Amino acid sequence: MVNKRIDEATGTETVGHEWDGIEELDTPMPRWWLWIFYATIAWSVVYVVLYPAWPLVEKATGGVLGWSSRGQLAEEMSAAELAQAGVRERLSRIPIERLPDDSALMAQAVAGGAAAFKVNCVQCHGSGAAGSQTLGYPNLNDDAWLWGGDLRAIEYTLVHGIRQAGHEQTRTSLMPAFTGVFAPEQMDALVDHVLSLSGKAESGPVGAQIFADNCALCHGPQGGGSREIGAPRLNDAIWLRGGSREAIARQVVDPKMGMMPRWGERLDPVTIKMLAAYVHSLGGGEDFLEVAENPAVQVDETP
Description:
The protein has helices at residues 31-50, 69-93, 103-120, 122-125, 151-160, 184-196, 205-214, 216-219, 245-253, 269-281, 289-293, and strands at 14-19, 22-25. The relative contact order is 0.12. It is built from 11 helices and 2 strands, in the order ββααααααααααα. α6 crosses α7. The longest helix is centred in the N-terminal third of the chain and has 25 residues, at 69-93. It is mostly helical and 303 residues long.
C-alpha cells in the first residue's frame, strides 16, 4: 500500500514506500538537468529530419540535407584522386634523371613508392626492405648494387626484372658451379682468400692463385665485382646468402641465383618510377654521375 506523506525535516513528499523504516523522498530533478534533457530531445528530432537516421531495408532515411557518410567519403576520395592525378601527370613527364631536382615531387614519388612497395615487394624484401639471406632476397637498405644504384638503373631493374625467363632485356648474370673442382684444402684456401678481401681472414698464396685463375675474371682481381655483367663485389663484407665460411663454400660449389619478376608488364610506368624513387631513398641510392658532374648535361627526355 502506497502511503505518501510530507517529510517534516525536508518538506518534501515521499514516494510512499518504506523499507525497514527507511522512506524515499520524491525529490524533483534540478531545472537545469530537465532543460538539458528537453534540449537533447529537440536536437534528436532535428537530427532525424536533417540527417540519415532510421534504417530501412536497403538504406537509411535520407534526411532533407541529403548528406551521407558514404557520399562524403566519395567526395574526399575524388578530391584525393584528383590531386594524385596531378602528381602522376607531373611524374609521367619528368625524366627520371631530373626527378631529384624537384624535391617536392621527389618526396611525393617516394611516398607513392612506399605504398606500392608494401603491396608488391614486401613479400620478398620484407616490410623494412632488409631482404633475407636465407632465401637470397637482397637487402635494399645498403649500398651494394649489382647493376648500379642510380634511379635509372633501379628503374630498369624494376621494368625488366632479373633472370626473367623469355625476356631478352632482363638483367642476367650467371656463376658456374665448381662442384668437384677443388679439393677440401683448396676450398679452404679459396674461402680464406675471399674473406681476406674484406679483412675477415688471412689469405695465402694457394687461395690467391685459385681466385686469380677461376674468379678474378668476373669479380675482379681485388674482388670489386663488375656492374656490366652483374658480378657482385666480394670486398665489402655485404653478402646475399651469408658470409660464413660454410655459406661461401656452398655458394662456390652450388651457386644459388634468384629471380625477380619483370614489373614492367604488371605496373604502369609512373608506379615503377615511384618505386624506383622509394628504393633509391632507402639509404644506398646513388647519384647520376654525369648529371652530378655537369648539371647542364643532356639526359634522355623520353618518359
